[in-house]
Design brief:
Layout: E1 3-6, E2 21-24, E3 42-50, E4 57-67, H1 72-81, H2 96-113, H3 120-135, E5 139-141, H4 143-148, E6 160-162, H5 169-184, E7 188-192, H6 212-225, E8 237-242, H7 248-267, E9 288-293, H8 295-303, E10 306-310, E11 317-322, H9 323-337, E12 341-344, H10 345-350, E13 375-383, E14 388-390, E15 396-398, H11 400-420, H12 426-435, E16 438-443, H13 445-451, H14 459-487, H15 493-513, H16 521-542, H17 557-561, E17 576-580, E18 586-590, H18 593-600, H19 605-618, H20 646-656, E19 667-670, H21 676-688, E20 693-698, H22 709-717, E21 741-748, E22 751-759, E23 765-772, H23 778-795, H24 800-807, E24 816-820, E25 823-826, H25 829-841, H26 844-849, H27 855-864, H28 876-892, H29 903-908, H30 912-920, E26 937-939, E27 942-944
Parallel strand pairs: 6-7, 7-8, 8-9, 9-12, 13-16, 19-20
Antiparallel strand pairs: 1-2, 3-4, 5-13, 6-13, 10-11, 12-20, 14-15, 17-18, 21-22, 22-23, 24-25, 26-27
């Protein structure tokens, strides 16, 4: 445990502090007299990052120094994102040592200057322990720390900002300016527009007010113009409006109407893809929108009664509406375009530690930080897998004691950072220094749960997640109370002491009431209970240093820096992963957590190997040899044939929420088939379960998605300039009596069928016959009708390419594995049929643009990097030279989890998301990275690029 001791007071202290002490820092990982750098093996690597779509080099720095256990991806991202100095200059950082020293030495000096340590020896232990934890990927600060700390530029450490705006033109223009400055620095901000009077109210001059929705246009245009941090991504922002604002219906409909505009313009031939030339004409696309609902409204929805919209000037109701109808409109809008999300005002403010200083009205763009207006929060996240250990008997345990010690270390460092931090506006600086909001969190929860044999959507999984979250926040506030005894409480504490202590008691009571499930979570709950008892005891005596301690952030880029398999509170993406190899190349592996999970569940080594081999081949655990069906749920993921249900995500959020100061950055993904009623249920259950904020995303609800450069070029080439319009009637070209044909037998998801495709003598497809099931059945009849319709269309001149582009990726049952080596997975019978027809009848260039290749072509791409056969002889010598490198890379991976046949897929893929698409035959609804062209994956409420570490809005 950390102790305090008397000593000379140094540096600034909060008002009213009589403390004259310093912390004694305990060693966790380090050895006296040995620097952490001397305990690892260092090696030099070359970092060359390219845009795989056009081959251009995005970044290059050779000879960088990292520990040998850091992955290629982590090295690439840290080198390209966090090393400071111009590339090629002597000032450019070239070693992880330089990066960590730049940050840690700044923290140590600020801690010494401000009286945090009892002695120079304690300061050195703090230095070494912080270095060790960063070096070994135990935790990471948020990106602004790595960008700014220890440099000559302003030392901004916060990633999360909340602004405010009042009902005056001066305040509105200040909002535009302040938001722009935050975007310029690479961060995002949120605010509540509900103080601005509605368009149904009068100005002092007698005219109608513009209303907040009108002013949103100007802010949206500003955000779209200012590239965040000079990067090619849009700014991140959150706009909140209270449910009782008279313009709430217009607010709800803003994005729905713009989505309809996108569709109309796209159909008219405009380039409306994300990043396209014409998408800038669409409004309101640079912000996440959320409606702030209160208990009164939700109870009116529950009872089916009316609800009053209130004047911003007088607070009096000016219109009565049907609460259930408005709630329905919110769900319909979210179904159509994923906005607005929902925030639960009374729940949020029930857990507010500083209500005497103002209500919590808004959040940061990702919804995890919720506190006072004009404030900020710096983040840090712990890698949970670093605390999973095997005891002497070979049984798993979560090392709660070491976890708590690391939390104490990190919270101390985070609070120190506020002493030297710079802020984008003076108002934000004043509020943050007065309330000292921190946001400790974690990553790799999904991997931890799977490795311990817990299903993500299970009572045991939720119990372990809740216990860890409770221990983290309890330990954080315990350290906050110890810091208050050393360097004083936060300035706003005296005014809010009763409320702060009340919230601490709420957390403690929730911890006591939580359900204990098994041998893994019970010891963690016990440690958390002890921590909360210390919180109440020490807080009563000394108060608290921080108004907020914990949140669950997306952990996008820093999650990759820590080599985490999962981000934030998210489950695993899929059971197969895309792994980059040292020296270039890539391969597919089965998640390393899978063997650990199987061992925890009691499977023998031979069984584990067989199950892993099945996953490597099929991408899922269904029908894996020897695996009990009751254990399938342990391996459920965010994507795939056994994906976690939307309510499973909501229940996990509810398990962690009572033990967090702030909230959780998470979007509940829903299938394209989800209904408006299901969205209403999720929004309603979120309120019942005590979640603070919630957002949903229905697959494929958005029109704009980025096209690859190749597809854009093809699109442009396929649109010749039209000089005049010629009307004509198509003429049917019938096939001759004698016609060549191909008959194919196939199986899709266990359903058998036959397809006969007949051609014109000049080798063009002319008709298709499909035989499925028994004659007279509904399926057989529909297939007959479908094949006739397609055949007639072909004979009237509809290109086969058109049918292929329309019907591939169509999803319905039966679906799954096929017996066709060229089309291993099909999302439906129709998907299989048109992929097969494309392979048999379309030229290579046409189907390659559609992403359809034969098994032989995929193998050729694996060996040569090209799908096309070379015109000249095969370079046997070159292939022979390349073979050992590939074999060595497979051997050096050191994991029995690697796929025997999956390297082919990995060669085609450029991220785990793309690999899952290939392996499982589905289409992930995610954007392409603006920087490197890789398909991104969901991280909290934004998207993360595994290739280069870029995010779609979160730092």
């Amino acid at each position: 445990m950390t102790e305090t001791t008397s000593g000379p007071a140094r540096g600034s202290r909060s008002k009213g502090s009589k403390a004259n002490k310093g912390l004694r820092i305990e060693r966790i990982h380090t050895t006296p007299g040995v620097h952490p750098y001397d305990e690892v093996v260092w090696e030099r690597r070359d970092v060359v990052m390219t845009n795989w779509r056009d081959g251009s080099v995005n970044f290059e720095q050779r000879g960088v120094e990292f520990p040998d256990f850091w992955s290629v991806n982590a090295v690439n991202i840290v080198t390209s994102k966090y090393f400071r100095g111009a590339v090629g200059s002597p000032e450019r950082e070239a070693s992880l040592k330089q990066l960590i020293d730049r940050v840690v030495r700044t923290y140590r000096k600020a801690g010494e200057d401000n009286g945090y340590f009892a002695s120079p020896a304690d300061a050195e232990i703090f230095d070494h322990e912080l270095t060790y934890a960063l070096l070994h990927q135990v935790f990471s600060f948020n990106s602004p720390v790595w960008f700014n700390v220890g440099t000559k530029q302003p030392q901004q450490v916060s990633a999360c900002f909340i602004l405010s705006v009042d009902d005056s033109m001066e305040s509105i223009l200040d909002w535009y300016k302040e938001e722009g400055m935050i975007f310029k620095g690479g961060s995002g901000a949120g605010l509540n527009l509900s103080r601005i009077r509605s368009s149904k109210e009068l100005l002092s001059s007698g005219g109608n007010a513009s209303g907040p929705v009108s002013f949103m246009r100007g802010a949206d245009a500003s955000a779209g113009t200012i590239k965040s941090g000079g990067a090619t991504r849009r700014a991140a922002k959150m706009v909140v409006l209270d449910v009782d604002h008279p313009d709430v219906e217009a607010f709800i409909e803003t994005k729905v109407k713009e989505e309809e505009k996108i569709r109309a313009l796209r159909d008219a031939g405009f380039d409306m893809d994300l990043g396209g030339d014409d998408i800038t004409s669409v409004q309101y696309q640079n912000a996440n929108n959320s409606v702030r609902v209160n208990d009164t409204f939700m109870k009116a929805v529950e009872s089916g009664s009316s609800f009053g919209l209130r004047s911003r000037l007088t607070g009096e109701p000016i219109e009565e509406i049907d609460a259930k109808a408005l709630f329905r409109k919110m769900a319909e809008a979210a179904w159509a375009c994923a906005d607005p999300g929902i925030q639960y005002d009374d729940t949020i403010n029930h857990w507010h530690t500083s209500p005497e200083s103002g209500r919590i009205t808004a959040s940061n763009p990702c919804s995890e930080y919720m506190h006072l207006d004009n404030s900020s929060c710096n983040l840090a996240s712990l890698n949970l897998m670093k605390f999973l250990q095997d005891d002497d008997a070979g049984n798993q345990r979560f090392d709660a004691e070491r976890f708590a010690k690391v939390v104490e270390l990190v919270i101390t460092a985070m609070d120190i950072s506020i002493c030297f931090a710079d802020f984008p506006t003076e108002k934000i600086g004043e509020t943050t220094r007065a309330f000292r909001q921190l946001g400790i969190g974690y990553a790799n929860l999904g991997a931890l749960l799977m490795a311990t044999g817990h299903a993500y959507d299970s009572d045991g999984g939720r119990a372990l997640a809740g216990a860890i979250t409770s221990l983290m926040t309890g330990t954080s506030y315990k350290r906050s109370a110890e810091l208050a005894a050393v360097v004083g409480t936060y300035d706003g504490y005296a005014r809010n002491a009763d409320a702060h202590k009340r919230v601490m008691k709420q957390h403690s009571d929730a911890n006591a009431a939580a359900k204990r499930m098994d041998d893994l979570d019970t010891p963690v709950w016990a440690a958390a209970t002890e921590a909360w008892q210390d919180v109440l005891r020490l807080g009563e005596k000394s108060g608290y240093r921080n108004a907020q301690a914990s949140v669950l952030a997306p952990t996008g880029t820093i999650g990759l820096m820590m080599d985490c398999d999962t981000t934030g509170v998210e489950p695993d993406l899929a059971l197969v992963k895309f792994k980059k190899l040292v020296g270039g190349g890539s391969m597919q592996i089965v998640n390393n957590t899978v063997p650990k999970a199987l061992k925890r569940l009691g499977y023998q080594e031979e069984q584990v190997e067989a199950i892993v081999a099945h996953i490597a081949e099929h991408g899922n655990v269904i029908d894996a040899p020897g695996l009990k069906p009751a254990h399938y749920e342990v391996f459920d993921c965010a994507m795939g044939e056994r994906s976690i249900s939307p309510m499973g995500h909501v229940r996990m959020m509810a398990a962690a929420q009572p033990f967090l100061s702030g909230a959780i950055s998470k979007t509940v993904n829903m299938p394209e088939s989800a209904t408006v009623e299901e969205i209403e249920e999720i929004y309603f259950e979120g309120w019942k379960l005590g979640i603070k904020a919630l957002a949903i995303y229905r697959d494929n609800c958005k029109v704009g998605q980025p096209l690859s450069a190749k597809k854009k070029e093809e699109k442009e080439q396929a649109e010749p300039e039209v000089e005049k319009v010629v009307e004509y009637r198509p003429v049917r070209r019938r096939l001759p009596k004698g016609r060549p044909g191909i008959t194919t037998s196939f199986t899709v998801g266990g359903a058998e069928g036959y397809m006969t495709a007949n051609s014109y003598p000049d080798d063009g497809l002319g008709e298709v016959f499909l035989k499925m099931s028994k004659q007279g059945s509904t399926l057989a009849g529909m297939m007959d009708a479908f094949s006739i319709a397609v055949s007639v269309g072909l004979q009237y001149g509809v290109p086969l390419e058109t049918y292929v582009s329309k019907f591939t990726n169509m999803r319905f049952e039966p679906a799954g594995m096929t017996d066709d080596p060229d089309v291993r997975m099909a999302q439906s019978i129709v998907d299989y049929i048109f992929r097969r027809l494309a392979l048999d009848f379309l030229p290579f260039e046409t189907r390659s643009a559609l992403g359809i290749h034969s098994a032989e072509e995929r193998q050729r791409h694996l060996e040569t990097g090209s799908y096309e056969a070379a015109d000249d002889e095969v370079d046997v010598e070159g292939l022979a030279q390349s073979a050992p490198r590939h074999v060595a890379a497979q051997k050096n991976s050191g994991s029995s989890s690697q796929s025997r046949s999956g390297s082919e897929s990995a060669k085609e893929a450029h991220s785990s998301t793309e690999l899952v698409e290939i392996q499982l035959g589905l289409n992930a609804d995610a954007p392409l990275c603006f920087s490197c062209g890789t398909k991104m994956r969901r991280a909290g409420s934004c998207y993360l690029c595994e290739g280069c570490g870029s995010t779609s809005g979160c730092s």
